[in-house]
Write a structure and sequence with these properties.
The chain is mainly alpha-helical. The chain is built from six helices and two strands; from the N terminus they run αααααββα. The radius of gyration is 25 Å and the shape is elongated. The N and C termini lie far apart (about 55 Å).
Length: about 170
């Protein structure tokens, strides 16, 4: 759990530190003028905005906010993506271009992974319908599904009326 919580805490600082690493890597490893333009105008904004979007998608999930920890899928995806970004900062001409392509693919894959997890958590488990008076009830299919899985303590023909105690309106 400590690893997942560590990643939860790391996501926002990573939006600032990973682009900073690309700039520092350019300076330390003498990458050249064209690499500087790439870092300044493409890499830093893309990594910054991409990391912020991914962080917000991850933190939009209720389980992440409740546990203050990301999922194991998030740990795997962000580890791969961050290690690829860090490796780009070394600016080694022998393998830089293929790593760049893999980094972009990993970022897109991580985006779809976070969307999938958010969608899976956010979809409704049953459909609740409302009458014109505002009374909520389960749809007939959801009611059948719920009654099929629950043990029957009463017959389906039983009718239960629950009255709500309301305070009189004050004028």
């Amino acid at each position: 759990m400590w690893l997942r919580r560590g990643f939860y805490s790391w996501l926002f600082p990573a939006a600032f530190l990973l682009p900073l690493w690309l700039l520092v890597g350019w300076a330390v490893f003498n990458a050249g003028g064209w690499a500087f333009l790439w870092v300044l105008f493409l890499a830093i904004p893309a990594v910054f905005i991409g990391q912020l979007v991914l962080t917000l998608l991850v933190r939009a999930r209720g389980t992440v906010r409740a546990e203050r920890a990301v999922s194991w899928w998030d740990v795997l995806g962000f580890t791969v993506w961050h290690l690829l970004i860090i490796s780009l900062g070394f600016f080694n001409q022998a393998w830089w271009a293929p790593v760049m392509v893999v980094t972009i693919l990993a970022g897109v894959g991580l985006f779809w992974l976070t969307l999938w997890q958010l969608w899976r958590e956010a979809r409704p488990s049953s459909m609740v319908m409302y009458t014109t008076e505002g009374v909520a009830y389960l749809s007939p299919q959801a009611a059948r599904d719920a009654s099929a899985s629950a043990p029957q303590a009463h017959s389906p023909d039983d009718v239960f009326v629950i009255a709500e105690k309301r305070e009189p309106e004050s004028r």
